[in-house]
Amino acid sequence: MINVNFNKSCVTLVILIVTNFTLSIFTLKKKIIMAEIKIEQKKIVTIENYISGTNDTNLLGVKENNSTVAAFVSFVENDTSKVGIDSDYTNEPLFKLTAATDAMAGEIGYDIRADLEKLKQSIVLTANEPFETSLAKNTRIAADNSTTALQNMQLAKYPWLSEEVDELKSALTAINPLALKPEQKDAVMNYFTKAANLLDKMNL
């Protein structure tokens, strides 16, 4: 009689354990499924916002048309053949690029003060050194700071312009900081062209 009761108790205990284990697995799978659904919903919302331009951080479809940016783009398109010939035509695009970057940041409400301060300091260095005998080191630093500022704006406000930023970064790396400034004419010209292209698309 005792053995029979013991066996019944064991069977009951096993059934309870199996039942609880099954319920636990079911509950866990349910939580996983719900979590996956939430993730997919977030993805859908993000994509919809991206396409419609309703996301506050997304400026797709917003037309800035800033005149300072347009002036820089026009300057590069019309005068880029002269860039690199002397210090004036190297420094002027840098000053105009700084003004255009600052103006673009103002249009979209992006705080660029820290990046802009570094850019201005590097431009002062390259603008106050002999053109013919100086290395392109400070010019490269100025371009590097400019690229950082533009990329930060692109990441924050223009996610669809990543390819243009990649092209700008590629143009940046082509500027050899250990070569003389006059030798970097083509590389500098190309950098300004890519920067103008990016800003022009931000400004559309």
- What class do helices, strands and sheet pairing give? mainly alpha
The radius of gyration computed from the alpha-carbon positions, rounded to a whole number of angstroms, is 30 Å
The largest sheet is:
none
User: What portion of residues is helical?
Assistant: over 70%
The low-confidence parts are 30-61
Span between N and C termini?
90 Å
Global mean pLDDT: 76
Total domains: 2
Question: Can you walk through the features of this model?
Answer:
With 204 residues, the protein is mainly alpha-helical. It folds into two domains: 55 residues; 136 residues. It is 75% helix and 0% strand. It contains seven helices and no strands. The longest helix has 51 residues. About 16% of the residues have low confidence.
Keywords for this structure?
204 residues; mainly alpha; 2 domains; 7 helices
In short:
The protein is built from 7 helices and no strands. The chain has helices at 2-52, 67-79, 87-108, 113-127, 137-157, 162-173, 185-202.
Topology:
Blueprint: H1 2-52, H2 67-79, H3 87-108, H4 113-127, H5 137-157, H6 162-173, H7 185-202
Helix pairs in contact: 2-3, 2-7, 3-4, 3-5, 3-7, 4-5, 5-6, 5-7, 6-7
